[in-house]
UniProtKB/TrEMBL annotation:
Membrane topology type: Multi-pass membrane protein
InterPro entries in alphabetical order: UPF0295 (IPR020912)
Organism: Bacillus timonensis
Domain of life: Bacteria
Subcellular location: Cell membrane
Protein name: UPF0295 protein E1I69_09875
Family: Belongs to the UPF0295 family.
Gene Ontology, cellular component aspect: plasma membrane
UniProt keyword list: Cell membrane, Membrane, Transmembrane, Transmembrane helix
Pfam families membership: DUF2614
NCBIfam families the record matches: PRK02935.1
Regions crossing the membrane: 12-31, 37-61
Length: 122
């Protein structure tokens, strides 16, 4: 499958992971400014903010996870979680949809947006 798209939960999770790394890098960067206490403090606080932000994102993932629907992927037969009307399989990137109307259509994230659903209803 040539879908250049990863499952939403996976995407958010890697974003949170990136935030943690960014936080550590920034905090580590602070060590280079040892002579300047104020600068070092700024770096440390900045790093801490990144790490706190990732905690928030992880919390958000937890909230989102309660709204996901567990489905069995028709392609690889593994249970995967999906969010919204369209998503992709966490394992094989198979596009999945809950809406029979969208079945067989080319995968597009726009089907998840509120704007699109409104247009469709009218
Ligand atoms: Zn799959």
């Amino acid at each position: 499958m040539g879908v250049k798209y990863s499952s939403k939960i996976n995407k958010i999770r890697s974003f949170a992971l990136a935030l943690i790394f960014a936080g550590f890098i920034v905090m580590y960067g602070g060590i280079f400014f040892r002579e300047n206490v104020i600068l070092m403090t700024i770096f440390m606080i900045l790093g801490l903010i990144f790490i706190l932000a990732s905690t928030v994102v992880y919390f958000w993932i937890g909230m989102l996870s309660t709204r996901t629907i567990q489905v069995v992927c028709p392609s690889c037969q593994k249970p995967t979680k999906m969010l919204g009307r369209v998503d992709v399989c966490m394992y094989c990137k198979e596009p999945l949809t809950l809406d029979p109307e969208l079945e067989g259509k080319e995968f597009d994230e726009k089907y998840n947006s509120k704007k699109y659903s409104k247009v469709e209803k009218s």
